[in-house]
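Bench log, entry 3. Co-assembly request; chain sequences pasted below exactly as received.
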Amino acid sequence: MNNYKNIGKNLLRVDGKQKVMGKTKYPQDIYMDDMLYGATLRSTEPHAYFKIDISEAEKLDGVVKILTHRDITGENRHGVLFKDHEVLCKEKVRRIGDPIAFVIAESPKKAKEAKKLIKIQYEKISAVFDPKEAMKENAPKIHDDSNIVYHYKCRKGNVEKGFKKCDVIVEREYKTSMVDHAFLQPESGLSYMEEDGTLVICAATQYPHFDQIEIADALGLPKERIKIINPAVGGAFGGREDITMQIHIGLGALLTGRPVKVCYDREESFYAHSKRHPLYMKYKTGADRTGKLIALEAEIIGDTGAYASWAVNVLRKSGVHATGPYEIDNVKIDSYAVYTNNPFCGAMRGFGATQIPVACEQQMDIIAEKLGISPVEIRLRNCFRKNSVTATGQVLVESVPLDKCIRIVSKRLFAESEMVWG
Amino acid sequence: MKKRGKGIAVSFYGTGYGNGFPDVSTATIRLEDEGKISISVGATEVGQGAKTVLSQIGSEVLGIEIEDIVLINEDTSKTPDSGTAAASRQTYNTGNAVKIAMESFRKKLFEESKELLGLNTSIGLETKNKEVYLKMFPQKKTTFKEIAQKLKKQKRRLEATESFTAQTTEMDPETGQGAPYWPYTFNCYGVEVEVDTETGKVDIIRALCAQDVGRAMNPTMIEGQIDGGFAMGAGYALFEDLGLKEGRIKNNKFSKYIIPTALDLPEIEKFIIEDPESTGPFGAKGIGEPVMIPVAPAILNAIYNAVGVRILELPATPEKILQAIKSYGKV
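Structure output for the full assembly:
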């Protein structure tokens, strides 16, 4: 054994006591003198052109400013990979929940009241909610170009020849659902100007240094003038990678010269951040009579909703992990990320690799049953070990204790007779 | 009637940005006035334990207590860029950056100690309990505090900044061949469920999780991740549904969007599997995401084992299970 002083020890979390005592400050707990409150007006249509009239709302007593796309001092766009989100939509909305205006008022109540006085006139256009439909050439286009954001291809060996050698072939189609991160703390943030002209954005985020760049670009300020304070984060799981309220409050503080705060409620939070990509997975898996996997073909379609966010990286990860942790000589995988008018999808714990085993691990059990061998046997027969080669040709040179994991769990879970069926 | 079934599932997970994209973390180590050591990193604490693990890694190099570390990660004007708190990359990537920066800091600390102790070389110096001492003659020693005071008088700072970049390659666009991620983390989960054949309700009555971690940095926090990941996976498998209709989220509140509570979860038996990764800090790999991945397929396989129905579309709600049992289940 090793002689580490701190590594491997169950030391108490350094931030634990404050959190348990309820003393930790989350963005929502921060207040400043002379603070203003924001409220976001969001689209109620999934796909439409619109006209906005803020004249009535502006007249309401207590309203300080109503931000629309016209007020944006830099680039009206942001996005972790492609800049396909608008900070505030200019003329078109692509999903329910798209931000159109940001009302800034003396109290949260006034901001909400004013929001109701804003008039939006929608001109609906045809929408598409099924990614398979959205892939067709004549489908309504969410952005200017094709709805297919990305196509990953993995080719190894020859699947046609491979399937001919198989004693059993299983074909099934699977679908996973679009789900939410359900973190505890809904989005909240506070922005203010410091005396030297630095704009401070205080918000819970996963990547403060990237937010800094996105905010600077949208506000047309040098990066050095933006400071991100990232206080306690009430859970994230990928849902705080994309910008939500940061640019709105930053612009508000910049233009009013006063601190601006916004707190989303749970309902708004559901619309504000990304979701997990639902995947349509068509699998064909073949093995010989001993249970050795010979060939695998998969087509995976991911619905990224109205914005790309991390869709390229997510569907790439789905594709790379599509075989499961098994050595297979003949592999053909195609994964696609597709725009629709659904809520947008992005990062979420497992990032495209969480959906995959819903298909490929059920395939394994189906094959095993057809061959009369146990789920444990088929996995041990095929699983990655040290120096295994993945479908992308990568050599797993070290630290591959998968068979050990399988053996430990199986031994505890199954009786001897359940492990070996054949 | 209640029927029981068992199921397992395995997964692998490539951590880090991947596909040749520069995956860089930077850390700055500084000797503070009172002899404390600060670690500045842009690594967010999202609840995963980054602050604790990075403090453990840093303090290990100097042989000090984690209480002697001040971890600064809340302010972009005071921290270098350590990448995103995602892709299960902070322990591996920023952990490596902290370790390398601390080793470089230690060299500088020894150089300062050499001067202070009137030695000819820094060879043979070691640190323990916030002291630097000569191993062959331990009476020859100075403290972090003394070094800090000397530097303060001279208006100098002792600090070290280092970066770590993970190794991956970009895949070929036509064949997908390449080394897109590193390291990979592995696991196997097993569950036993009880399915009520009259209501379609699934109870998870047993759960076993074997998780590869490379090297365990803090076993209790790993168990916490497994608990959380299992709960999230169980919700994904059985309950969670936005109720999307033409782009509208029908279930946009927790009274309708059902996530598991402690009552929905069994005691989880955990097995932390160590197989140190030579490129990781002290052998560690990321586990934040992997811990949830095998949950849903293990549950689905157990449902089949119990009642003979394959649920091909998530979530496996009582309605879907009941309908499948009625049409072809083995009851």
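Residues 49 and 221 of chain B are 7 Å apart (CA to CA). The two ends of chain B are 9 Å apart (CA to CA).
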